[in-house]
Amino acid sequence: MFKFKIIKPIKQTAYLRQSQKIKARGYILYEEIADKIDYLEFFKEFELLDTFYSWFTVTELHIWMLSLRAMAEGENGKDLRNAIVEALWTDVAQRVKRLGSGSPSMLRKPNSRIIRANASCIHILR
């Protein structure tokens, strides 16, 4: 039986409120997703181009799977899921800046793929 508890206590954070601990855990989980996925293996296996969009799609898939699991934790799970999605969009803004594709205002321009991806994230947030 699956006994993994997704909302783990964060050590040395006694001074944080529960909501802050959950948000911090969401950012930590996102970082683990972003850092530990073998993106090149995904790109090769599924014949994806090595692009920002491919990176986003693979990352979003993993976030979606983790979000489904978080939802089993009730209200705290919803908060955790929201923090993970927030961390994703924070990371996306930073990556866009590093790519030199312009300023974060570029994210405000309509891009049908990103809009669909955002819509799917919003759908699971309900």
Question: Gist?
Answer:
With about 130 residues, this protein is mainly alpha-helical. Helices cover about 65% and strands about 0% of the residues.
Describe, in plain words, how this protein is organized in 3D.
- Helix content is 67%, strand content 0%.
- It has 5 helices and no strands.
- With 126 residues, the protein is mainly α.
- The protein has helices at residues 18-36, 39-45, 52-70, 75-99, 112-125.
- The longest helix has 25 residues, at 75-99.
- The two termini are 27 Å apart.
- Belongs to the CBP3 family.
What is the helix fraction of residues, given as a range? 55-70%
- Uncertain runs are none
Instruction: Give the overall pLDDT as a whole number.
Output: 79
Task: Give the assembly state of these chains.
Answer: single chain
Strand content: under 5%
SSE pattern: HHHHH
**Largest pleated sheet:** none
Class of secondary structure makeup: mainly alpha
Coarse morphology? globular
Number of helices: 5
Compute the CA-based radius of gyration.
16 Å
Q: What's the total number of strands?
A: 0
What is the distance, rounded to the nearest whole angstrom, between the alpha carbons of the first and last residues?
A: 27 Å
Domain Ubiquinol-cytochrome c chaperone: 45-106
Family: Belongs to the CBP3 family.
Pfam families: Ubiq_cyt_C_chap (PF03981)
Protein name: Ubiquinol-cytochrome c chaperone domain-containing protein
